[in-house]
Write a structure and sequence with these properties.
The chain is an alpha+beta fold and 388 residues long. Helix content is 38%, strand content 17%.
Length: 388
């Protein structure tokens, strides 16, 4: 009987031990899986189905009513673009955009294409060999495990990635109006990291555009990396893909596709004219669709009031009124004041004219001669001279 009781106790202890070990091992596996996911957040495997989801479906020319291809430069010293540069050193949960691009290129997961300065062709003929690119920009590397001639792979140490020298990016934007919905759609076609390096003797840094990456091929990996977009919210709520799709960046237009393949700086050497041309292109892109719709009555009324205010301000400025607020308030009574001032001026001029006229000569008074009194006979008159 004792043996049976001891055997039952031993069996119960063994079962509880097995249950504890199985439960603890499941927790460990789950934790290790999460850790691996964090470490490979932006470099995980992308299936063909996931890749096809982000590929842009080419539109028919019949569906496109208007198109404008714009080249824009993103300066990473700008606060709005700083999220593409930081963190300088990679962490388990976050790394800069250039480090993601270099790792994907080293693992032969994406393709790079030659920088042709406005005549980009994304075909296999112009595909960049990663080994040649690393040698050209003096990036130290070693052959990685599993590398073959058809699919070469390279191992690059984090300290050898020149992420601190990539201080700007070039992007190609396509602005298109789709006939199917009559809306302006903006897509990013490609992105190019730009290396800023100084010579051996210092001086101003020279820009070296490295290569073009098709943005559709890069998007599946960018959706896996969450980033900080500002210092106000310390929670990473957006991904790199959201950053570009929502146009959260800020950059100057340095070129538009044209027949002569000239940049804006070549067309407008004067800095003021260059800035005016950039602003004009940007304004036209943002307001192009406004001409496609008939304005409502409210919009017409608002436009009329705006014209009246501008006309009133212009008239007030012509009268020498420096204060803007007074100019707008006094504009309705401007004509009356102008008439009053004219009348006053005329009155003053007339008074002045009267004062300057020569005074009239006074009339001379001749003394009257008293006639002698008559004695009833009007014909009898005595001469004074003959009186004796």
């Amino acid at each position: 009987m004792k043996k049976i009781i001891l055997l039952a106790i031993a069996t119960a202890v063994a079962l509880s031990t097995m249950a504890q070990s199985s439960s603890s091992s499941s927790v460990v596996r789950k934790r290790s899986k999460d850790d691996d996911h964090n470490k490979t957040a932006a470099g995980g495997k992308v299936t063909q189905r996931m890749q096809s989801f982000y590929e842009e479906v080419p539109k028919s020319e019949a569906d496109i009513a208007w198109e404008k291809v714009v080249y824009r430069m993103l300066d990473l010293s700008n606060v709005k673009n700083a999220t593409l540069y930081y963190p300088e050193e990679p962490t388990e949960q976050q790394e800069s955009l250039f480090r993601i691009i270099m790792r994907l290129l080293a693992n032969d997961q994406i393709a790079a294409y030659e920088y042709l300065d406005g005549r980009e062709v994304f075909t296999d003929q112009y595909r960049v060999k990663v080994k040649d690119m690393l040698d050209r920009f003096h990036v130290i590397y070693t052959q990685a495990k599993g590398s073959t001639d058809k699919s070469p792979k390279f191992a690059i140490d984090d300290s050898d990635v020149p992420a601190n020298e990539v201080l700007s990016y070039y992007i190609i934007e396509k602005w298109q109006i789709d006939n199917r919905n009559n809306r302006m759609e903006t897509t990013i076609e490609a992105i190019c990291p730009v290396l800023h390096r100084s010579g051996d003797f210092g001086g101003e840094a020279v820009r070296y555009p490295m290569f073009w990456i098709k943005f559709d091929a890069l998007r599946p990996y960018l959706t896996q990396q969450y980033i900080f977009v500002d210092d106000d919210n310390n929670l990473a709520k957006y991904t790199y893909d959201d950053f570009f799709q929502l146009s959260m960046y800020e950059g100057d237009i340095y070129k538009t596709r044209n027949l002569r393949n000239l940049s804006l700086m070549q067309q407008f050497p004067d800095p003021d004219e260059l800035k005016q041309a950039q602003d004009s292109i940007q304004k036209r892109l943002l307001t192009y669709t406004d001409k496609m719709w008939v304005p409502t009555r409210e919009e017409l009324e608002a436009a009329r009031e705006k014209r009246e205010q501008e006309e009133a301000a212009r008239l007030a400025a012509e009268n020498g009124d420096d204060s803007d607020g007074d100019a707008v308030d006094k504009a309705p009574t401007e004509k009356k004041e102008k008439v009053r001032s004219t009348r006053t001026k005329r009155g003053k001029a007339k008074a002045k004219e009267n004062k300057t006229k020569a005074p009239k000569a006074p009339k001379s008074k001749t003394p009257k001669v008293k006639e002698p009194k008559s004695n009833g006979n009007s014909n009898a008159v005595r001469s004074v001279r003959r009186r004796r």
